[in-house]
Each structure stands twice: as structure tokens, then as C-alpha cells.
From TrEMBL:
Topaquinone (TPQ) is generated by copper-dependent autoxidation of a specific tyrosyl residue. InterPro entries: Cu_Am_ox_TPQ-bd, Cu_amine_oxidase, Cu_amine_oxidase_C, Cu_amine_oxidase_C_sf, Cu_amine_oxidase_N-reg, Cu_amine_oxidase_N2, DUF1965. It comes from Neocucurbitaria cava. GO terms for cellular component: plasma membrane. Keywords: Copper, Metal-binding, Oxidoreductase, Signal, TPQ. Pfam families: Cu_amine_oxid (PF01179), Cu_amine_oxidN2 (PF02727), DUF1965 (PF09248). Residues 89-149 form the Copper amine oxidase N2-terminal domain. SUPFAM superfamilies: Amine oxidase catalytic domain (SSF49998), Amine oxidase N-terminal region (SSF54416). This is Amine oxidase. PANTHER family: AMINE OXIDASE, COPPER AMINE OXIDASE. Its EC number is 1.4.3.-. It comes from the Eukaryota.
Length: 784
């Protein structure tokens, strides 16, 4: 979530794919494994075959910008006739106007639904562009919408203000805009002059290390500063932490902080605010030096210089585990792929499911028009923001809040390693996004695969007094399709999973791995996290990942029904001896107004999005339940100055709003530096509108309270750091949607003890690879 601030993403981002071995390597290994099974028919194994193709019913109306569209938009913006007076970003200074980034503008739902459902023409595509306007009298960042595309005489460039409710539309004050390369460069002379002046002090404290400037070869300290770097855009500041350089510098922080003011575009006015070290504040160089000379500054521990301990490679010193030289079990689509794809339209069909994917440079992968058995469940399902807020006794941890969309989280979704990040044989898709006048490709950065759930979807054995103890036994295979991407945003690797289950339920999971943003270890500050290395403390923090679920259960008019479990005292005449006694019942009502709310204590409430006018065969209203999963949390601090009003979406478990074309996102991508005067204030969505029988949107949070631990070294583990939620049919159907699955077994034993075994023609022999006889599947029972 956090980059050394000299990184200017829009300019320097490159796909890391070239570092990843070609997929073919592991595929060959896979084939070798199966060839050893002496089957001669495996030359074109269904394990490695591409998925079958299908044709999306509609051209994807949410698609990103094609390379030629991006180029045309770029050229239009840079055409002097546009009046934008743009400078080439690679040469830009603070006082120039230049493009930050370009992406596709989301398509309005009110234009898409008629196209999907009523044969209306495909909505026009638009681009959005954030332009840094340092050349203006009052410098700012202004967002524009450019369209319709393709660029023609009708194409206009307009300010994109409509989706921001903070009062300044698409304009963000200079002091709050993204801290890019030119801004970082502008602060470096001040930092270099201050740090050179005290190089003897840093050398004495930190094993000879000093900072003389970002390009000075003598520098052997690196610096980092996070966000926010402004409260309301009237001023800007950097709380800089120094670290030892190296691949794991997040894990080797030092106890030295430099605070500077960097307000405005004139770098000659930037100034020193002070230093922090040894848990003390020194407003001037003179005061720091006086303390140093009085012998009051010393490090109790040296930070480690060799950070090999923080690399995710094999560590033989941990010992040997018996049989670990063998290949671990793997998910393999051994019956052949059971999903179909329209790659051009990013459209997927799987076991009754169908949906479109798209990609945004800030939000990553997004899902649209999610249907099950032809009926719409969700119009949109998308990640909206990944927030992290830290705690600590120094000016880095205590004031750090990240919004990862600010760092363009989507562009940080990188190549996935087959067999490890995703199963062997998965489908891999590229993602693309604009980079100046060209289009960047992150290869194989989305994977799609079907996985064994490793437990049956359903099973039952009916008891009987025969020798086998049952008269019939049914068990249904559990499988799901997963769409996955992993965004490495600075220190963290967020894994986003969307899991489409056979029964029509949909699970959203986020996991976190990667480096802790750690602090120097202070023995007296255990309340902010444990010591995890010689001189490193794992800093306590919250991760809150906000999602949007625009449910359209069989159409747009939906309600959010709450069924609260209540204990009530009542009496029943057939239990006269009990008098009044307590039992539970449901208090059922529809939420009336837009609101933010939390899961009920003890989870004693069920939330169902239903269509008030659609009933199943039993007369029950058809809906989908929101089932909380693991670690469904909100921010721990609700009144921190660092996240006061720009992170409202992270402050409740759930929220429900009326869908509006001008409220497409929970957050804006440059909101992080405006905690007191947000560009986008999520809490303003809640203005008393009715949500009963309306087009409603559910916003939900996943996340983790990250109670850091030694086992976060070298990196946080996905086993523990994960959070999930399930959307499950609730009276949506007349019965469970497992009856139509052939991947099942049905075993019956008649009165004479004769067993019949039904496999519906599906066994391990379906794929060209024959492994075993199907009866083996049932273990003891099959051999009867
Ligand atoms: C596989 O093919 C080889 C030679 O091509 C043959 O010798 C062998 O018997 C075959 N094995 C089976 C199981 O058919
Ligand atoms: C265009 O921007 C440059 C700085 O990049 C500035 O010097 C110049 O005055 C601007 N021109 C106009 C017409 O605003
Ligand atoms: C270092 O800082 C001190 C205190 O501000 C100042 O007096 C001195 O001139 C500076 N020295 C250099 C070489 O900049
Ligand atoms: C930093 O560089 C100086 C000068 O080369 C050297 O003496 C010192 O050991 C280095 N310290 C670290 C921590 O790299
Ligand atoms: C993109 O911009 C660069 C630098 O201005 C230029 O050299 C290149 O020709 C442009 N590419 C296209 C396709 O216009
Ligand atoms: C993915 O990107 C790579 C590298 O640019 C390219 O060779 C490949 O054709 C792309 N795949 C698809 C399906 O576009
Ligand atoms: C039911 O009555 C008992 C006895 O009066 C009381 O202790 C209990 O709190 C009541 N429960 C509820 C749910 O009101
Ligand atoms: C989308 O809807 C908003 C709000 O109604 C409107 O201001 C905007 O112009 C629409 N966008 C397009 C591309 O029509
Ligand atoms: C449900 O149907 C009734 C009767 O047809 C209609 O009056 C009402 O507006 C409908 N409600 C919704 C939310 O569609
Ligand atoms: Cu964490």
C-alpha cells in the first residue's frame, strides 16, 4: 500500500511479467507427471487445454480503453486546440499542466440496462483523465471526461465533476494531489541539505549511514513517507522515515524521522518542521545537535543490515520436513475445463453462472451482470477501496492511512505463477491500462480456474438396520469457479478471489500477504505491536477492504429485509407447567432508509436482498442472503484526524444506498490527502432516501485487524490474514440447486442387502487420463 514516494507510477510502472518463467515450463512438468501414469492418450491432455469458447450475448459495455482509443484521447488532450496547455509528463515541473493518468470512465447503469435488456444501442464509451494543473493561478488537479469515443468531431473534453460530492467536483487542491515524481523531486533539495548538515549524527546513530540526496551516491539511507500529507489541501507536509535500503526495507526501519512542510509549488518556501528520534521531538537542527552532543541520542539496538531473513526464499536453516521433497497435492481440472469464455468480451459461463469482467486501473477487476441460470443477481460487484490505518508512537505509524486506489491498485495486479498463485492449467488473462500514449500489458494477471472444494456440496445417509447401517447415501461433488488477481501495492500482496459455487452462492474473499510496514523497536511500546526482529516492531494496523454489491435480484426494485432473532417470553397452553418461557422468533422488517449499519451482536440478524414482487413456488419472496464470513470488520478508530471524513466507507460493516449514476464509487482516488475536507464523502450518500422496493446498492467491508506477530516475518501468511463473505440464495429457488448435478453418487441398499451404485456416468475416466476405477471413490462401501 505504500511506495517510496519518489515512485511516479504513471511514468515508471512496468509489467514485471518478463521476470516470470513462461507458463509452458510448468505445463511441461505437469504433462510429465501424467505421462508417468503410462497412459498413451495424454498427448493433448484436457488438463492443459484451453477453455471452450462462447459468445457473450452483448459486446461488453464496461470494457476498458483499447490502445487506439487511448492514443486518440491522449492526442486530443495534447492538441493545442484543447486549450489544456499540457506538457509532456516525463519533463514536467510542478508549475506545468500534465496528465496524471487516463482510464475508461465507468458506464452509467441507466444507459447499460436498456442496452442489456431492451435492445437499446450500446452506450457510448468515455475516457476519464486526471490532469495536474500546476500552471494555473490556483494550482490543482482536475479530472475530465472525454467522449464519446472513438474520437470524432462530437467528442468533447468536459470537467468530470458530477460524481464528487465534496463541493469542488473533480478538482483537488495542489497540496492534496497525488505525491508524484515532480513533487518528490521538489522536496529533495531541502531534505538533502538538512540531512547533509547532520550526516555525522545519522552516521553515529545508524552504522555510518547518511543521506545526501536521492541521486547522491554517498546516500546509504532511503526515505519513505506515506499519506495523508495534507488535512484539507491548504498545506502539505511529509513525515519522512529513514530506512536501510534493500529489497526488504519495509522491515528495516530506523528510529529517525524528518518532518517538513512542502506547501505549494514554490519549493524555496518549503521548511523543516522538526525531527523525531528516541521518542523525542526536536524542532530545529540546533536542538537535535545539542541533544546529540549531550549524549542523549543513542540506539538501544542496531537495525539489521543484511535483510536476507526477510526474503521469501528457501531457508535450509529451518530444518528438514519428512517427505517435503514430494510434490504437494494440486487442484487439477481433470475432467477438462467446465467453463466457457469469450475472452474478447471478458465474458464467462460456468455451471449456470454468467458474468462479464472488466478492469480499472484504480479498482482492479470488476464484475458486471452476474446471472445464475439466466436470472440477474448482481448488476455490479467490485472492490472499491483498500484502506490501511496504523498505530504507533512515532510520526510514521501514528499518522499513516493508505487508500490503495490512490496508488492505482489495479495497475499493480501482476503476473501470477502457475501452480502456486493459481492451479496448474488455469486460464490466464492479461490486463491492460494506459501509460501515456501507449498501453501497458501486465501479462497473465487474472487467473480463472475451477477448484475442488474438498468437501461435498451436500450429502446424506439414511440409517437402516441392515448390515451396512444405511438404506441410501447421496453425496454431491463440491466445486467452484474462482477468478483471482493479486495486487502488490507497495509492501502488501492483496489476493482478490471471487468464487462462484455450484448452488448459486457467491463468495468474495480477500487475503493479505507481503511485508509489514514495520517500526523501529521501542521496548516500551508493546501496545503497538510485538518485536519481530532485533530492532523491528510489527506495527499494529487495520485493513479494511470496501466492496460495492449492486444487487438486481430479478430486476432493479429490491428491498433489504432484516430478520432479527429475538428472545421473547411467551406461554403455550400445552406446556402449562412452564408458565411463560423464553424462546426465539424472528422480527422481520425491510430497511426503509439508506444507512450504514453493523452486523447484529452475536450475528442475530439475517440480511436478505430480495425482490418484493417475485416469489418462488412457495410464495416466498426471492432473495439473496448476505452471510458474514471471516473477519468482517470496520476501522477501529472512527474519529482519527488522519481518516476523519474521507474514509467513512470503512467505518461500518455494511451500508445500503439507492443506486445513482452519480454515486458510482465509495471513494475518490485522491481523497486520502483530504481527511478534513474530502473530495468524496461517503457519509453524504445517506440523505434519507427510501431503499424499500428501490434500486439499491449494498456496500460491505472485509478486512483484518492486523495483530502483528513474529510469523509475519518474512511476510504475512494467507492462512491467517483473510476475510470473506457469501451471498447465498434465500428462497430464490424452490429447492437447493444441486439436484441437476451429475457429479454425485447415489448408493442404495435394498431389504435383501443388495447394493446399487449410481454414478450418472461421471467418473475419473471422463478425461482422457484414466487414473483409477470409479468405485474406488467410495472407499470401503464401493467394494461391498
Ligand atoms: C504406451 O505406448 C508404448 C509405446 O508407444 C507401448 O510400448 C506401451 O505398451 C503403451 N502403454 C499402454 C498402457 O498402452
Ligand atoms: C502554459 O503552461 C506553461 C507552463 O507549463 C506556462 O508557462 C504558460 O504560460 C502556459 N500558457 C498559457 C497560455 O497559459
Ligand atoms: C547546519 O545547520 C546549522 C543550524 O541550523 C547552521 O548553523 C549551519 O550553518 C548548517 N551548516 C551547513 C553546512 O549547512
Ligand atoms: C554508509 O556509507 C558509509 C560511507 O561509505 C560507510 O562507512 C557506512 O558503513 C555505510 N553504512 C551503512 C549502514 O551502509
Ligand atoms: C508517443 O509519444 C512519444 C513521446 O512523445 C513519441 O515519441 C511516440 O511517437 C508516440 N507514439 C505514438 C504511437 O504516437
Ligand atoms: C498477453 O500479453 C502478451 C505480452 O504482451 C502477448 O504476447 C499475448 O498475446 C497477450 N495475450 C492475449 C490473449 O492478448
Ligand atoms: C423472560 O422472563 C424472565 C423471568 O422474568 C426474565 O429473567 C427474562 O429476562 C425474560 N426474557 C426476556 C427476553 O424478556
Ligand atoms: C452519467 O450520469 C451522470 C449523472 O446523471 C451524468 O452527469 C453524466 O453525464 C452521465 N455520463 C454519460 C457519459 O452520459
Ligand atoms: C409490485 O407489484 C405491484 C402490483 O403489480 C406494483 O404496484 C408495485 O409497484 C410493484 N412493486 C415493485 C417494487 O415493483
Ligand atoms: Cu497487515
Amino acid at each position: 500500500m505504500h511506495f517510496p514516494t519518489f515512485t511516479y507510477l504513471a511514468l515508471t510502472s512496468v509489467a514485471i511479467s518478463s521476470a516470470v518463467p513462461p507458463l509452458g515450463y510448468d505445463r511441461r512438468v505437469l504433462r510429465d507427471i501424467f505421462d508417468k501414469r503410462e497412459n498413451n492418450e495424454t498427448t493433448s491432455s484436457c488438463l492443459t487445454e484451453a477453455a471452450l469458447t462462447t459468445k457473450a450475448p452483448k459486446i461488453n459495455p464496461w470494457a476498458g480503453l483499447a490502445p487506439e482509443e487511448n492514443l486518440a484521447v491522449w492526442n486530443l488532450l495534447h492538441d493545442p486546440a484543447s486549450g489544456l496547455n499540457l506538457t509532456d509528463p516525463t519533463e514536467a515541473k510542478l508549475t506545468d499542466n500534465y496528465v496524471f493518468w487516463v482510464d475508461a470512465l465507468h458506464t452509467n447503469k441507466s444507459d447499460v440496462l436498456p442496452y442489456l435488456d431492451e435492445g437499446a444501442p450500446k452506450p457510448s464509451k468515455y475516457a476519464r483523465a486526471i490532469i495536474f494543473e500546476g500552471g494555473k493561478a490556483e494550482p490543482d488537479s482536475q479530472e475530465y471526461m472525454i467522449g464519446p469515443l472513438p474520437v470524432s468531431a462530437e467528442t468533447t473534453i468536459e470537467k468530470l465533476d458530477y460524481m464528487y460530492n465534496g463541493g469542488s467536483g473533480g478538482s483537488v487542491p495542489f497540496n492534496a494531489r497525488y505525491f508524484d515524481g515532480p513533487r518528490s523531486t521538489a522536496t529533495d533539495p531541502l531534505i538533502a541539505s538538512i540531512m547533509s548538515n547532520i550526516s555525522d549524527i545519522t552516521a553515529a546513530l545508524f552504522q555510518g549511514a547518511a543521506y545526501y540526496g536521492s541521486t547522491d551516491e554517498r546516500s546509504n539511507l532511503t526515505l519513505t513517507s506515506g499519506t495523508p500529507l495534507s488535512f484539507d489541501g491548504t498545506s502539505a507536509f511529509r513525515s519522512i522515515m529513514f530506512r536501510f535500503p534493500g529489497p526488504a526495507s519495509y522491515m528495516t526501519p530506523l528510529d529517525f524521522f524528518l518532518l517538513i512542510d512542502c506547501t505549494g509549488t514554490d519549493a524555496s518556501l518549503y521548511f523543516l518542521k522538526g525531527f523525531v528520534t528516541n521518542e523525542k521531538f526536536f524542532p530545529t537542527i540546533a536542538e537535535l545537535r545539542a541533544a546529540f552532543e549531550a549524549g542523549e541520542l543513542a540506539m538501544e539496538y542496531d537495525q539489521t543490515l543484511d535483510a536476507d531473513w526477510a526474503l521469501v526464499d528457501y531457508k535450509p536453516e529451518l530444518g528438514v520436513r519428512d517427505l517435503e521433497e514430494r510434490l504437494a497435492p494440486s487442484t487439477l481440472e481433470i475432467g477438462g475445463k467446465r467453463y466457457k469464455l469469450d475472452e474478447e468480451n471478458r465474458y464467462v459461463e460456468y455451471m449456470g453462472w454468467s458474468f462479464y469482467l472488466t478492469f480499472s486501473r484504480t479498482l482492479g477487476i470488476m464484475f458486471y451482470d452476474i446471472k445464475f441460470k439466466g436470472e440477474r443477481i448482481l448488476y455490479e460487484l467490485s472492490m472499491q477501496e483498500a484502506t490501511a490505518q496504523y498505530g504507533g508512537n512515532q510520526p510514521k505509524a501514528a499518522n499513516t492511512v493508505y487508500h490503495d486506489t490512490y496508488y492505482q491498485l489495479g495497475t499493480e495486479m501482476g503476473s501470477l505463477l502457475e501452480g502456486f498463485d493459481c492451479p496448474w492449467g488455469s486460464t490466464f488473462w492479461n490486463i491492460t491500462y494506459s501509460s501515456y500514449n501507449t498501453t501497458e500489458v501486465n501479462t497473465n494477471s487474472i487467473c480463472i480456474f475451477e477448484t475442488d472444494m474438498n468437501f461435498p456440496l451436500a450429502r446424506h445417509r439414511t440409517g437402516a438396520s441392515n448390515d451396512y447401517g444405511f438404506s441410501n447415501l447421496g453425496s454431491v461433488k463440491g466445486a467452484a469457479l474462482i477468478v483471482r488477481a493479486i495486487a502488490t501495492v507497495g509492501n502488501y500482496d492483496y489476493m482478490f478471489d471471487y468464487s462462484f459455487h455450484m448452488d448459486g452462492s457467491l463468495e468474495v474473499i480477500v487475503r493479505a500477504s507481503g511485508y509489514l510496514q514495520s517500526s523501529f523497536y521501542y521496548p516500551d511500546q508493546g501496545k503497538f505491536g510485538p518485536r519481530i526482529q532485533q530492532a523491528t516492531q510489527g506495527s499494529l494496523h487495520d485493513h479494511i477492504v470496501t466492496y460495492k454489491a449492486d444487487f438486481d435480484i430479478l430486476g432493479t426494485p429490491n428491498s433489504l429485509q432484516v430478520s432479527e432473532l429475538k428472545a421473547v417470553n411467551q406461554s403455550q397452553p400445552w406446556f402449562p407447567e412452564l408458565g411463560t418461557f423464553e424462546q426465539m422468533e424472528m422480527d422481520i422488517h425491510n430497511m426503509q432508509e439508506e444507512q450504514q449499519f453493523n452486523y447484529a451482536a452475536n450475528n442475530q440478524a439475517m440480511y436478505v436482498v430480495l425482490n418484493p414482487n417475485a416469489t418462488n413456488a412457495w410464495g416466498e419472496k426471492r432473495g439473496y442472503r448476505i452471510v458474514p464470513g471471516r473477519s468482517d470488520i470496520h476501522l477501529s478508530t472512527l474519529n482519527s484526524p488522519w481518516s476523519l471524513k474521507n474514509s467513512e466507507f470503512a467505518k461500518s460493516h455494511l451500508a445500503v444506498t439507492r443506486q445513482h449514476d452519480n454515486e458510482p464509487f465509495a471513494n475518490s482516488v485522491q481523497n486520502i490527502n483530504l481527511p478534513w475536507k474530502p473530495q468524496q464523502d461517503f457519509s453524504k450518500f445517506f440523505d434519507g432516501e427510501c431503499v424499500d422496493g428501490e434500486d439499491l446498492v449494498v456496500w460491505f467491508n472485509l478486512g483484518m485487524h492486523h495483530f502483528t506477530r513474529s510469523e509475519d516475518v518474512p511476510v504475512t501468511l494467507y492462512t491467517e490474514a483473510y476475510s470473506s463473505i457469501v451471498f447465498a440464495p434465500q428462497n430464490f429457488f424452490d429447492r437447493a440447486q444441486d439436484g441437476d448435478l451429475l457429479n454425485r453418487r447415489w448408493v442404495q441398499i435394498d431389504d435383501e442387502g443388495k447394493m446399487t451404485f449410481e454414478d450418472y456416468g461421471v467418473g475419473l475416466d471422463v478425461c482422457p487420463i484414466v487414473l483409477e476405477e470409479p468405485t474406488e471413490l467410495l472407499g470401503g462401501v464401493g467394494e461391498l
